[in-house]
Amino acid sequence: MAVDIKNLNHNQLNELISKAQVRQTELRKEKVTKLREKINALIKAEGFTFDDVFGARAPKSKRAGTTVAAKYRNPGNEEQTWSGRGKRPRWFNEALKAGTKESDMLV
Q1: pLDDT tens readout for residues 39-76
Q2: What is the value of pTM for the model shown?
Q3: Are 23 and 17 in contact (CB under 8 A)?
Q4: What percent of the chain is helix, strand and coil (3-state, nearest 5)?
Q5: 14, 32, 81, 104: which has the highest count of C-beta atoms within 10 A?
Q6: How many CB atoms lie within 10 A of CB 82?
């Protein structure tokens, strides 16, 4: 199927591109699935399990991706906060140097 792209208008060309990208994604997924099947068949043929060859998968952390509530707020800019973890932000250090107490900046 040959498509003469010189005769396509802007909308038709965009539609063709989006269809091609969808098809490309489908083909990639099919190829990955076939490759996984080949790898698993080879592993089984040798008498091993996936975990024997690649090691057991580590369970996902329950805390991964969670955010910590703010503990301190910048008195000069209410939008700036700090959880109290990690390196102190500049505004926090500058406020301490200016004489503000940590307890005064608590949320």
Answers
A1: 999 999 999 988 888 888 777 777 777 788 999 999 88
A2: 0.47
A3: no
A4: 50, 5, 45
A5: 81
A6: 19
For range 15-36, the mean pLDDT = 96
Q: Residue ranges of the alpha helices (H) in the chain?
A: 10-45, 50-54, 90-97
Amino acid identity at 20: A
| Centroid of chain to Cα 68 | 18
Residue 84, both tokens: 């109290």
- Beta-carbon contacts of 6 under 8 Å, excluding residues fewer than 6 positions away, are none
The residue type of 27 is L
What confidence tier does 3 reach under pLDDT thresholds 50, 70, 90? confident
CA distance 99 to 75: 12
